[in-house]
Amino acid sequence: MRIEETDLPLPFYDDGWTGVQREAAHAFWHWHLALTSPMSATHDAPGFGAFFEEEKRRAAAGQPVCVIPGAVADAAYAACSAYDLPLEHLAAQVGAAGAFAGPLRFAEGGDVLHFIAQWVVPHGRLLAGLAGKTRSWQLPLVDELCRAFFLTGRLAALPEDLTRDHLFIPEADLGQMGVSFTQLRAGEVDENVRRLLWKQVVRARDAFAQGQPFARELDGRPARAFKRAWHGALELLNEIERRDYDLWSAPLSLSAFQRVLVRYQALFGRAAFRS
Hints:
Elements: H1 19-34, H2 48-60, H3 70-82, H4 88-97, H5 109-119, H6 121-130, H7 139-156, H8 158-163, H9 171-177, H10 181-186, H11 191-211, H12 220-242, H13 256-268
Helix pairs in contact: 1-3, 1-6, 2-4, 4-6, 6-7, 7-11, 7-12, 11-12, 12-13
């Protein structure tokens, strides 16, 4: 995965932080991204599950792990120590990362939500902790935003995910819409595929709406970064609709004009963020 401020699956990588905070945010993102291609992991090897449980235990203790480079692990451990953030949030991601070592499917929507809770939410809570937003009423909003950004990011990267034999859309949805994995992988867009992807866009928008009140918990630089990320992701969902759900003909991204529009909305689109 590319690491750019404008790459929408990576909100709050560079944007919104002071210099020292930015280094910690980078450390948390590098940990998260490295686990999408876990080292020393063979999906069909004996003891695969036990291997990841041991790696999870070691991460929770701040010990060296085999699944990511040592320098990446050391930086993430140091960031947790510097900001008094729980290592369990790093460990939870290790426990979930085994799913990336082989074909990845989810039978029902609840299975996707469970994976998000184990994989994305701990990462999002580390970033929220870096911003000092860990109150009991703030974390449910953070969790919704984790779901929103993850669903949007997986839609944007759907063709790429499919080539890795990964699919984050529930198989129940495919069956309901009469769409096969093979059809999706081939990029054969028909009305059934459009209805399937429309449903995923609706889910992502709903999660953004649920997490939107988090804007009231922020001010200054973090607030501006949040608004840019929030509007940017919604514009990406708009772009999916404008393309009539064809995610295969060209890589999904925002044009220079759309990026300017997002920044304008973040500065002047106050209505969506009023109390």
